[in-house]
Design brief:
It contains eleven helices and four strands; from the N terminus they run H-H-H-H-H-E-E-H-H-H-H-E-E-H-H. The protein has 213 residues and is mainly alpha-helical. The longest helix is centred in the first third of the chain and has 15 residues.
């Protein structure tokens, strides 16, 4: 990966951050999206203010929603089963709006470690994890995590044993993924709120694991 990249002072990883959306050209897809939006507004399907409010609502979401679901799954095996079957339906049980796009939950176990990516663009479960980080959208991550997932994970400080299978899941416009990380040892006496505080965005993407206490 090239050494010519942008750094932020709060960037915590040795893995480079490459927000290649900066100064990017106005693409055909961007023009199409803008034209469709203008057409729907002209036809009174929704208003510009409706569009603004929806964007603000989506942008206000944070990983706390996904963390609540993970904490409940750690403490309630029945809920965990329902979450693994249908994330969107399970979210409603906790009064969480997961949106209308289907989300699939993949569980980390001692035998398998999961990581998510969107190789085509940046499809991501924003309603549960908040805005995607810049590195998730970078070409480097999108291309390399498919080819060499263990090496990319190591750049995040996550070393996966050769005995553990690494599974990469490619999100699309029609299906998003989130990872159910393993519950850390030493957390047995903690309540759901405390457990949720242990869950990070990156652990639900799969590039990090939650350390034992």
């Amino acid at each position: 990966m090239s050494d010519h990249h942008h750094h932020d002072d709060d960037w915590p990883y040795p893995h480079p951050k490459q927000p290649d959306t900066e100064d990017a050209p106005f693409t055909d897809h961007m023009a199409m999206a803008e034209a469709v939006t203008e057409l729907l507004i002209d036809k009174n399907i929704f208003t510009a203010d409706d569009m603004r409010k929806m964007v603000e609502y989506i942008d206000s979401k944070s990983p706390a929603e996904g963390a609540r679901m993970v904490a409940r799954a750690w403490t309630d095996p029945d809920f965990k089963g329902r979450m693994l079957k249908d994330v969107n339906a399970a979210a409603k049980e906790l009064d969480i709006d997961a949106g209308t796009i289907p989300i699939r939950c993949v569980e980390n176990t001692p035998e398998a470690h999961n990581v998510i990516v969107c190789t085509l663009c940046s499809c991501y479960p924003r309603m549960l994890l908040g805005l995607p980080p810049d590195w998730y959208k970078s070409r480097a991550y999108r291309s390399r995590v498919i080819r060499e997932p263990r090496k990319v994970l190591a750049e995040f400080g996550t070393d996966i044993s050769d005995a553990v299978e690494t599974r990469v899941h490619d999100s699309t416009a029609d299906l998003r993924y989130m990872v159910l990380p393993m519950r850390p040892k030493g957390s047995e006496g903690m309540n759901e709120d405390a457990l949720a505080g242990l869950v990070t965005r990156d652990s639900m993407i799969g590039v990090s694991v939650i350390k034992d206490l």
